[in-house]
Write a structure and sequence with these properties.
The structure is a homodimer of 344-residue chains. By secondary structure, chain A is α/β, with parallel strands linked by helices. Chain A folds into two domains: 2-157 and 325-343, 3-Layer(aba) Sandwich (Rossmann fold), CATH 3.40.50; 173-321, Dihydrodipicolinate Reductase, domain 2 (2-Layer Sandwich), CATH 3.30.360.10. Chain A contains 14 helices and 13 strands. In chain A, the strands form two sheets. Chain A has a seven-stranded mixed sheet with strand order 4-3-2-1-5-6-7, with helices on both faces. Chain A has a six-stranded mixed sheet with strand order 9-11-10-8-12-13. In chain A, helix 9 (182-192) crosses helix 10 (197-206). The longest helix of chain A has 20 residues, at 324-343. The radius of gyration of chain A is 21 Å and the shape is globular. Strand 13 of chain A pairs antiparallel with strand 13 of chain B.
């Protein structure tokens, strides 16, 4: 099987994925009979191009990383914007990796809607569309016979959505609790070690984990968007980020963490979802958890999600020290999943 | 789709599964278009029967639990032994749940071989066949177009084999570490709380977690068999339990646990596998791990497995306080998996 692939967004995650695709090209052909060509790449600052003969991935990566324009690549047709690109890309599958817009999930939702309506499979690493338009996009995908996958939106490539879908069949998710935001966890665990909030935040920014404006992380907004995505997909909810009872980590002091530690506890920013008679209740707030619990064991940029189910009781999944490669792996795992499912 | 099911072994796990099957009968039909009838049940002490009209599951459960013989059920044909039963059961799928024979995996291997050779799908909760004959049985299954699944053999219904197979495609498992034996973990965490080894063991036996002769658990044999199963399936090894460098928990004293705790550490019986240039190296031994690590966070009968992979880095999966229902769920999840895969 040969798939024509298009990229909407070609930032760190997409380029790390492009490198994996290149490295694994022969393995993918051999193990999954999956061959591919790249028909289009849309970027915000390096042009939007389509190509009839296929774009050489590593040349595109090098072009963007050296600050060039993709329109300089051989046989590149300049299509100006991503909307036109989706119309004309003639792809079988689009990777949508534009940055999160935490207010309304755009323009990613428009990109995905446009692709799915054309029967193009979509793999996204952007949680906005799942938090703001999951039901609509899922229906569209189903209507047009396209796949719509998004493993990477909550815990990078750690299996969550695919885990519940493929490995917990017949079981129902009744609730969840998770440490899902790397910036706040890096800050809280740094403060446990005695650093100040400001030092920890600056460190997270230096390491490229927190943005210059880290309010989305610190005020619990990122964790809230992830909680909504989990509730919408795993618990059949139709929530929006504004529905989350949300409290961030501002105002927490080193002394709070020290006194918690003395009592064998740890402070974590915990996202929770619970099935109630009035639908799914979602909260994000700093909580004292046992230092020797799964959530307490999560330090630095690591993440954990505890799922409470009817038939399988409680299970947890933990991701240790993720980097951009893990998010890139999410795109690969969704690509292979689509390949395997469409084959059979 | 209608599947004819047979049970080889009808102990606690199989009967808990039978209850779930009965409760979920209409859901399985509705959600997975999966209908079933029971064509045969083999037990060690309550007879081996086949039935042309289908066995009523709850009547079979009640019969065995009241100490009766299955041959008393309506339309039951007495077939004497499990070998004859597999030959004559006319089933599409066999659930093999006979007890583990840690020396050679028999008679489960013979049961499974006989079923697969006839093209009958097999779901087992018995780790012996995977530790002693995985390659042979997997080839047989493939040769005869039958499915062979065994999710429950390491951490009950917690996804491990299905997780790697379905949710970590394209990634390679380089190593693992796990707390995989409930009896020893219950003993070690009980000793952490100041109880003696003997008190903890007696408690585990009272609760039905440890057998009267708990040597298989205490000497690390059960954990070793699980480590071999993981290596054979996930790391393409062809190991046997005797290949494991194995040390149990005898001789550990309450003082050892106390001094570890003082240093922020916890003693756990850890099973490890590592890809080396000479194949997979397997060990089972008590280890001091950080009390606030994932393995340290596992207390009582809970289990955890950390997987080290090439593309996805390190992820861990944790099962909290499993009971027989969780092992029974493993059988259900394998059944649904076979149904879904065979459909597509």
């Amino acid at each position: 099987m040969h798939l024509r692939l298009a990229f909407i967004g070609f930032g760190n995650v997409a380029r790390a994925f492009a490198r994996i695709l290149h490295l694994r090209e022969s393995k993918l052909a051999e193990r999954y009979d999956l061959r591919f060509s790249i028909t289009a790449i849309a970027t915000a600052r390096h042009g939007c191009i389509i190509s009839k003969d296929g774009i050489e991935l590593l040349k595109a990566v090098a072009c963007v990383e050296s600050g060039g324009s993709l329109t300089e690549l051989r046989d590149a047709i300049d299509v100006r914007d991503s909307a036109t690109l989706i119309e004309r890309c003639n792809a079988d599958l689009v990777f949508e990796t534009t940055p999160l817009n935490p207010d309304n999930g755009e323009p990613a939702i428009t990109h995905i809607r446009s692709a799915l309506t054309r029967g193009i499979h979509v793999v996204t690493a952007n949680k906005g569309p799942i938090a703001f338009a999951y039901r609509e996009l899922e229906s569209l995908a189903s209507l047009h016979g396209a796949a719509f996958r998004f493993e990477g939106i909550v815990m990078d490539g750690t299996p969550i959505f695919n885990l519940v879908d493929s490995c917990l069949p017949g079981a129902r998710v009744l609730g969840f609790s998770g440490v899902l935001n790397s910036t706040t966890n890096l800050i809280l665990t740094g403060m446990e070690a005695g650093q100040s909030f400001e030092e920890c935040l600056a460190d997270a920014q230096r390491r490229g984990i927190a943005e210059a404006d880290a309010a989305n992380d610190i005020d619990g907004w990122d964790a809230a968007v992830k909680a909504v995505a989990l509730a919408n997909v795993l618990m059949d909810s139709d929530s929006r980020p504004a529905d989350v009872d949300r409290k961030g980590i501002r105002g927490i002091k080193v002394e709070d963490l020290k006194s918690a530690a003395t009592a064998g506890m740890a402070l974590r920013l915990v996202a929770r979802g619970k099935q109630t008679t009035n639908g799914v209740k979602l909260t994000v707030a700093p909580e004292e958890v046992s230092a020797s619990s799964v959530l307490g064991s999560v330090r630095g940029t690591s993440n954990a999600l505890v799922l409470e189910t009817d038939l399988m009781g409680e299970i947890a999944i933990v991701e240790t020290d993720p980097g951009v490669e893990q998010t890139a792996y999410a795109l690969l795992s969704d690509l292979i999943r689509i390949r395997v499912r469409r084959d059979s």
